[in-house]
Amino acid sequence: MNIHEYQAKELLAKYGVPVPAGHAAMSVDEAVAAAGKLPGPLWVVKSQIHAGGRGKGKFKELGPDAKGGVRLAHSVDEVRAHAEEMLGKTLVTIQTGPDGKQVQRLYITDGVDIAKEFYLALLVDRETGRIAIVASTEGGMDIEKVAHDTPDKIETFTIDPATGLMPHHGRAVAAALGLTGDLAKQATRVLAKLYDAFVGTDASQIEINPLAITDQQQLMVLDAKIGFDSNAAFRHPETEQLRDLTEEEPMEIEASKHDLAYIKLDGNIGCMVNGAGLAMATMDIIKLEGGEPANFLDVGGGASKEKVTAAFKIILSDASVKGILVNIFGGIMKCDIIAEGIVAAAREVSLNDPLVVRLEGTNVAEGKAILANSGLPIISADDLGDAARKIVAEVKQVEMA
């Protein structure tokens, strides 16, 4: 789960992380009132969407020469003008895709005179099973571009879970950022507070870009992005309240209601698989055969008939889906249960798209019999490669018709 920048900063402030004063605004009048609570004479008006690159983004409704989603204001009247232009408009950035996201919230913050910008992040390193610290002197830029063009300017350190954050981690980060003296001490303190926030909230990522040195020689977090481990959500009901459903895919929201792991993709072949690894392999083989998966969907190892039916409906609710591949290896998940769910969902939604099913494992004979006797135009496959070839061929025929 992700949250907005203003929510991230409010959370980090509770852990003592230095952030500029600011207030969220849902309307133009609220934006003006927020500016009035800040000393000025410089304010920053920031669009709040779950995507990076806001400052370089463009609003669909405005001309190509219009300013982006992060703007400076030198008066309260200018704050009002920016708010009127930004609220309700669709902001397109490198992370939103061409459709963009509608700006429904703004964040009005104190302007800060910046002497130098850095990048600092904490994230879960799945390769080592540890929390990793990523630091770079190239703050304020797309970290992906930095990693591609100048990887030597990014340094990574991992934290041993047995000891937690140690003083040498702070010294290493300060050295990586080229900080000495009091600024090095500040970097150590900021890192410690970020680490406390990371562990205390069960975060999966805290990204600070930029971490800035102000003209007053103070380190300050000017932008923050936080993502949380959804598996730990039950421990943090207060964090769940920060969720903004308008920033999420409707199908992903529906999937979460049924405890389904679903991510919408850009292809046209819907996938329903049990097991994350098998789902990844299924998508890879679809691409190998020249197709494009429309989603990642893992129904889990012990799904019920109702859960399978819900998964099938979610796939079919995507208008871009032109065909469906079901790939199930039945262990705890029995093939006949999967088959019953497929048949029930297909009948309920009047399935018109090609459907290829590959079943293997527990009760596979019973499952195949249920599909064969359903009276539905279901195409059976012998193995995963056969299934991928068949669904890609079927979808191509649909698109050519």
UniProtKB/TrEMBL annotation:
Pathway membership, UniProt: One-carbon metabolism; formaldehyde assimilation via serine pathway; Carbohydrate metabolism; tricarboxylic acid cycle; succinate from succinyl-CoA (ligase route): step 1/1
Free-text cofactor note: Binds 1 Mg(2+) ion per subunit.
One GO term describing the cellular component: cytosol
Record keywords: ATP-binding, Ligase, Magnesium, Metal-binding, Nucleotide-binding, Tricarboxylic acid cycle
One example of a Gene Ontology biological process annotation: tricarboxylic acid cycle
Needed cofactors: Mg(2+)
Molecular function via GO: ATP binding; magnesium ion binding; malate-CoA ligase activity; succinate-CoA ligase (ADP-forming) activity
Lineage: superkingdom: Bacteria
Keyword Ligase attributed: yes
This enzyme's EC code(s): 6.2.1.5
SUPFAM superfamilies membership: Glutathione synthetase ATP-binding domain-like (SSF56059), Succinyl-CoA synthetase domains (SSF52210)
InterPro entries to which the protein is assigned, alphabetical: ATP-grasp (IPR011761), ATP-grasp_succ-CoA_synth-type (IPR013650), ATP_grasp_subdomain_1 (IPR013815), Succ-CoA_synthase_bsu_CS (IPR017866), SUCC_ACL_C (IPR005811), Succ_CoA_ligase-like_bsu (IPR005809), Succinyl-CoA_synth-like (IPR016102)
Catalytic activity: (S)-malate + ATP + CoA = (S)-malyl-CoA + ADP + phosphate; GTP + succinate + CoA = succinyl-CoA + GDP + phosphate; succinate + ATP + CoA = succinyl-CoA + ADP + phosphate
Binding-site list for Mg(2+): N209, D223
Database matches in Gene3D superfamilies: ATP-grasp fold, A domain, ATP-grasp fold, B domain, Succinyl-CoA synthetase domains
Enzyme's top EC category: ligase
Domain ATP-grasp: 9-254
Residues that bind substrate: N274, G331, I332, M333
Function: Succinyl-CoA synthetase functions in the citric acid cycle (TCA), coupling the hydrolysis of succinyl-CoA to the synthesis of either ATP or GTP and thus represents the only step of substrate-level phosphorylation in the TCA. The beta subunit provides nucleotide specificity of the enzyme and binds the substrate succinate, while the binding sites for coenzyme A and phosphate are found in the alpha subunit.
Family membership noted in the UniProt record: Belongs to the succinate/malate CoA ligase beta subunit family.
Alphabetical list of NCBIfam families matching this protein: PRK00696.1, sucCoAbeta
Subunit relationships: Heterotetramer of two alpha and two beta subunits.
Protein name, entry field: Succinate--CoA ligase [ADP-forming] subunit beta
Organism annotation: Sphingomonas lutea
Gene: sucC
